[in-house]
Amino acid sequence: MTTPRQRTEQAFLKLLVAVLVLIVLIDLPREVQSASRQNLMILILLAAQLGVAWNIVGGYAGQISLGHVAFFGVGAYTSTVLLTHFGINPWLGALAGGCLAALLSLVVGWSCFKLKGHYFAMATIAVASIVQIIFTNWSFVGAAVGLTIPMDETGWAHMVFDDKTPYYQLALGLLVATLAVNFAIEKSHIGYYLRAIKDEPDAAQSLGVNLMRYKQFALATSSFLTALGGTLYAQKELYIDPNSVLSTSLSIKMALVAILGGAGTLFGPVVGATVLTLIDETTRGVFGGTGRGTDLIVYALLIIGIAVYYPSGLLGFVQERRERLRARRARALIDQEAAA
Length: 340
What we know:
Layout: H1 4-31, H2 35-60, H3 69-86, H4 90-112, H5 118-137, E1 147-148, H6 165-187, H7 189-199, H8 201-206, H9 211-237, E2 239-240, H10 242-245, H11 248-261, H12 268-287, H13 294-308, H14 313-339
Antiparallel strand pairs: 1-2
Helix pairs in contact: 2-6, 2-9, 2-11, 2-12, 3-4, 3-5, 3-9, 4-9, 6-7, 6-9, 7-9, 11-12, 11-13, 11-14
């Protein structure tokens, strides 16, 4: 059993490692000058941010949402419509998109949290499909053709840049902020309530935990952060349409990066996003345009593999190996003392 001093030393070491990693990540674009590699790093950061945002409701609260792309699309479309139709700055549009996504989450939560298990997951898919149909047929937002963000003015004030480095910095900053929100929730009483709702909902309710309130809080926070990711994606690509920001595969990927890395852990989605994005880019490079739907096949195989072999994800697998190694060392030490 660890002593308070050992726990303090471990916490300080983890903080030091996190700071060093952050410094390396901030300086990484200077070392990697290739635009394609910088774009890959941005995709990893965006996938990680979306996975960490999903983790609040899916990992901590145990509410498996497969329709989170609806909030991503709302964020992307809100900021883009406000910019192209009304000339509103995308920074304000990002906040507006986040608030609108949080309002949508109230409707989703009110109607879907009455369902449990796979019924809830199916209901969220239905919500995302409805949102996709609405945007595909709504001419005001470009319908199936989509919307293009003009490059008339560039710079931080307009969130439009000529190179990839500022987008990388924005994606990294958004990921760090999302991780900070996760950390604050994890260490607060809300985090304990969410984990209780996930593991023993009946017991939590009997102790006075309002299940609906805390599930709704988790979904609203998650949807707000997901919508911010949608705005950043729209500003990076300068073009959005229903297929790019409201696709089913993207919705599955948000959940899969967290599940692959370790749902309910702080850095699990970051690990999962790194692995999954590299797999995506590899399969795209191998199959090219002939591999449409390959991503869904890869996702399906990963889900099966995780469910069968590593239900706790990659971080859970690593933690399990570490605990086994510690147990072996402890037994070896006991045998040595007994032999002496």
